[in-house]
Amino acid sequence: MPPDLRSLSSKTVIVTGGANGIGAQAIRTFHENGANIVIADLPATRSAAEDLISSLSDSSRALYVPTDISNWDNMKLLYQQSIDRFGGVDIVIANAGAMESKEFYDFERDENGELKEPVEAHRIVDINLKGAMNNGSRGSIVLIASTSGYFGGTSIVSYIASKHGIIGLLRSSQRVANHLGVRVNAVAPFFTPTHITGSYSQKWMERGLPANSVEDVALAIVRTSIDSEMKGHCCLVAGKKTREIEDARARLVPQWIGADMAQLMTEGGRLFDELGGYPLPKPRI
Length: 285
Ligand SMILES: NC(=O)c1ccc[n+]([C@@H]2O[C@H](COP(=O)([O-])OP(=O)(O)OC[C@H]3O[C@@H](n4cnc5c(N)ncnc54)[C@H](O)[C@@H]3O)[C@@H](O)[C@H]2O)c1
What we know:
GO molecular function: oxidoreductase activity
CATH class of the largest domain: Alpha Beta
Helix content: 40-55%
Distance between the termini: 53 Å
Structural class: alpha/beta
Pfam family, one: adh_short
InterPro entries: NAD(P)-bd_dom_sf (IPR036291), SDR_fam (IPR002347)
Strand content: 5-15%
Number of domains: 2
Strand order of the largest sheet: 3-2-1-4-5-6-7-8
Keywords: Oxidoreductase
Family: Belongs to the short-chain dehydrogenases/reductases (SDR) family.
Bound molecules: nicotinamide-adenine-dinucleotide
Oligomer: single chain
Shape: globular
Number of strands: 8
């Protein structure tokens, strides 16, 4: 049974990257179902965010906060303004993301012939991973991963590395999230026509390959955010179908790494459970 979307009435939802693409559709769906919405997107998206808000049926339940999610001060302001306006934050959708505009291994040289720091690669990791970690929410969190968080076939180095990081964040946050009563889940879209896929969307469609619409992905995001049964789950959305994949992965570990190693991992995990978590090393200095 899909969760009842009416439970969104009077909940407050922040969607990072909510001015465009999948995030903008998530904003519409949350709002249509009674939520207060906060669009947290870059200052350059102001007019898209304002157009989106004026297209909503009730703009008193909508707020735009210009935000760079990789900047902690911006994030503090985002939470402050959301709480001032709506009294609290119940759901955060960590959706903002970007893809590099040049290849990672294309290192440039400076005027002295020295290799230049790969700043574009760092920028992508800062947005996609650090930005998703810049999150002090205590409600329901949905991380927007990607099939690139599971597979590396397209060779987009920084994007894939950062999205694998999102899956790591999903898995590693469960212990403390359960302790705090926070639900952390993910949605991993496959091809969905938006700005990110704009340079090959046409070719994808001409090939006749199935594609998600932003509505399909937004609905998976909204359902995941309110489904109290979901903790540490990830919904793959591909060709309009939605499938939970973290449980399936956990069940397949013995086939993947062998029953003996799976057993060893389980026993090691049990020890950490008994110790109340992984005992952290002291700082060296
Ligand atoms: N479209 C797809 O096929 C696809 C597939 C897998 C995953 N995703 C993921 O879905 C999410 C949404 O992407 P989309 O396809 O809607 O792309 P999009 O480019 O249409 O939207 C991304 C939004 O993020 C915002 N953003 C970028 N950097 C930001 C920053 N530093 N601070 C705040 N906002 C920032 C952009 O301004 C934009 O509004 C991303 O995390 C993306 O990686 C998309």
